[in-house]
Structure formats: C-alpha cells, structure tokens
C-alpha cells in the first residue's frame, strides 16, 4: 500500500539533523565505499525534506553528498530551484553544510563557485561572491537569519570549503547537543524556502525582458517561441540571440564549450546541447538530436510554424510545434501585447484582454468596437488589429482557446 508524504515514513527532520551531526565523525573513519551513511545523506535526508511538504519535488531538486571516492571535509545537502540551477557548481541555492569538526550544521542560503573559479583567481571569486551576497542581503528580507560573515566551517578546509564559507548569504547554526525542536527546524526550512522564492522573484523573474529578439520571442520567465526558418529544420538547431542567453542559462558558457541539455517532445526525451563557438563573434547555438530533428522535419510543411520552448528546469525544455499545443490564454494575450509594443504602439490597460475574450466568444460586434477603440488610440495607424492577432495565434486553434477562455475568464480579466 502506498503512503502519502504526510505520513512522513522516513522520520523527522530534527532526527535527521541530529544523526548527521552525531554520526558523520565516526562514519568518515570507516571505508567509504557503500557505507550506509552515504545512502542516508544522498537518499534518506532528501526524502525526509520532501516529506515535510515544505519543499515541492516538482519544483525543487534535493541532492546530498558525502564526497566522491573519499569522505568530504564538508558534506552537504542542497535544495535547488530547478529553474535556477541543478548543481552546486553554479547559481544560488539552499544548502545544509556540516562543519569540519562535525559539531555544527549550518542551514545556509548560498551560491555556487566552481564555474566562476574556472575563469577567475580565488580572491577575485571571493570578491564577486561577496558583492553578490551583499546585493541579495540588501534586496530581500533575511527572515531572521544571520547575514554576517561569521560562519565557521573549520580550519584547513581546502579551497572548496573556504569558498562555501565565503559564498554564504544567510545562515543559521545548529550545534551538537542543542538541536532545536522539530517545529523550529521545520519553521527555519520554511523561512529559507521563502527567502529562495523572494530571490527568484527579485533577481530572476523581475529581470526577465519579454518581447521579440530576432526570430525568438520571450513570453515570460519559462516560455520562449521560435519562428521556425529553413535552418531550424535542416541543421537541427538554432542560433540564440544575446538578449535571451539567460533563458538557456548560456551566459557562463566559455568559447568552445558544450553543455548537455534535454528536450521533451511528445512525451519522449531527446538529447541536446548548447555550444559557444570559438570564432570572433562567439555565437551561442542550441542543437537537438538528429532523431528529434527528423520528427520536426515531418512538420516542415506547416504554415507559419513556431516552436514553443517551455523551461521545466535549468537544463530541460519541453518543445511543441505550432498547432500541437495551445498556449494558455494569458500567454496568448501577452504575445499580442509584446507584438504591439514591439511595433512602437501603446494600448489602454485591459483592452487587449477584452478583445481576445470577445473574439473567442464570438461576440463580433464587441470585438469590432474594441478594434475601433484601438484604431482611435493609434490614430488610425493600425486598422487591422484583428489580423495582427490572428497572425500571431492562428496556429493556436481557436476552438480550443475558446474553451480555455470560458473556463478562465475571471483570471484573464484580473491580469
């Protein structure tokens, strides 16, 4: 019989923290290979964290490590927002860090340093991380966590351990023999998750620039649309404009570097890669497997075909071709707004939403009135606003959109 996460079959968080603090010192004196403590950190602790219902497994990845081949000086358990990072080497994340002497476990809001270290000297990496930390500290609520630089993971840490320490943004210490109650450690986790959410909104979502970038359009922080040209089908890939590097997490790519990514199409997974050319222009391109490319070529005769890229985590994208998947009504409205703004026009707030509702509900007279209002607003420069809308969404299947509109009308009117 299956058991829900509310049943917490893997034990309580406080017990896991106590075991982490109390048993690692003994474990690391024993043979590393297949040691049960490694399984506890890599498997059991993530399950315990998920079982609190504080961390959504669909949105966050939890990974633990006690070292690779040898016991780590500073073992850790990370919580990654899949849209920011899925590795401790880069990005910002939550991480529990056990001090070298194993007497203190720190719950921290931290940042990856490995990728940064590849291109900068150690002291420069520390300077950059401290600048980032101070910017974040000054921008979002600390929720009562420490913001100083007094976290102490121990002496003789090695470079990685030292950089963990220097990269800490917020933290709280749990000391051996004085671990707080289950209620408190869960409340701490909940507050740190709130910090992570605020970070995403302030530093990721708010920095998103929607609009048209060459043959690409950014709808929101997880949705991009590519107007498919001949090379899209012939070369199993596409160039990425500099303005949307962030969408593919390509800003950190080095010249000549390749990074593996995944694409999901029609429920199946396919391999892909991002690459930065070594030529003078250092263009970034995205490629997918020949197998996926052959499926795309089967759709090449569709009119005005577009590919929708939905980011599910930092290295995974769900792709659908025009006519196969309908964007949500809110996204469709945003498309029209982006297009009109790109053409240099403005519009009265709520007018586009009303226009779409009236078109999709078959209220032609009201839609015409909306067009007339727009025409007045634009001094007659856009007389065929409906054609613009249809050009942008004609592959979206109006009958299916109508059903979405009727179900979500209240949400649209609030947007």
Structure described in brief:
With 415 residues, the chain is an alpha+beta fold. It has helices at 13-27, 36-51, 114-117, 122-137, 159-166, 182-204, 230-234, 290-297, 329-342, 351-360, 364-377, 385-393, 398-414, and strands spanning 60-65, 76-81, 92-98, 104-111, 170-175, 211-213, 216-220, 223-227, 237-240, 258-265, 268-276, 284-288, 306-313, 316-321. Helix content is 38%, strand content 21%.
Radius of gyration: 25 Å
Query: Overall pLDDT, averaged?
Result: 80
Strand order of the largest sheet: 6-7-8-13-14-10-11-12-9
In what range is the share of β-strand residues? 15-25%
Helix amount: 25-40%
Task: Give the overall silhouette.
Answer: elongated
Query: Helix- and strand-based class?
Result: alpha+beta
> Uncertain spans, ≥5 residues at pLDDT below 50?
1-10, 378-415
N-end to C-end Cα span: 43 Å
Number of strands: 14
Largest sheet: 9 strands, mixed
Please give the count of helices: 13
Query: What is the element string, with H for helices and E for strands?
Result: HHEEEEHHHEHEEEHEEEEHEEHHHHH
How would you describe this structure to a colleague?
There is one protein chain. The protein is of the alpha+beta class and 415 residues long. It is 38% helix and 21% strand. A nine-stranded mixed beta sheet has the order 6-7-8-13-14-10-11-12-9. Helix 1 runs antiparallel to helix 2 and helix 10 (351-360) packs antiparallel against helix 11 (364-377). The relative contact order is 0.08. The model is unreliable at 1-10 and 378-415 (pLDDT under 50).
